[in-house]
Please model this.
Amino acid sequence: DAKTTQPTSMDCAEGRAANLPCNHSTISGNEYVYWYRQIHSQGPQYIIHGLKNNETNEMASLIITEDRKSSTLILPHATLRDTAVYYCIVRVGRDDKIIFGKGTRLHILP
Amino acid sequence: DAGVIQSPRHEVTEMGQEVTLRCKPISGHNSLFWYRQTMMRGLELLIYFNNNVPIDDSGMPEDRFSAKMPNASFSTLKIQPSEPRDSAVYFCASSYNRGQGGNTIYFGEGSWLTVV
Model:
């Protein structure tokens, strides 16, 4: 799997949009970008994934640059419950496994 | 739908004892994963199965660890004998792999193991 680079930690004010960046400069054409998060003491939770196009679901939006070398996860209106470690992962389509890095620790400030 | 179900949720055992962790994947899923999480090493993939067959066990730390998947709805991770350094949270996860990419892996809530 291609490596990803994420900031170690970020702060965001409650109610504002949280924008979490991820660099994946060595991504291959058949690798997807996945985002998971882990709230303290819970199992990792799937957020969103994409290949080339931007994606949106009820939790978040995923913006992938045209060259696919970086992406941004957007939580449109952050709440205190969004405080978690967020993992950006690139993953070969046919390959099942997910390899986690260290992620970004997001603190939502009241 | 029920998610990935793990048991026990918490276990405290003495060094040298056998530990068995259990996992029931989401119905219809054909891939199953075991992960371990510690403060020092983060989330590590131990082993994963596809259609009940072990595909990659390169993350299994040593011979004291073994995993089985006798059928599509059940898997075990066994540690024998257990050691204090095995204390960790063990996560089971499952997915449906169509071989086309884009499938999602869903995680259980974990089994918290403490070996004293």
Observations:
- The mean pLDDT of chain A is 92.
- Residues 85 and 105 of chain A are 4 Å apart (CA to CA).
- The interface with chain B takes residues 30, 32, 38, 42-46, 49, 51, 92-94, 96-102 of chain A (CB under 8 Å).
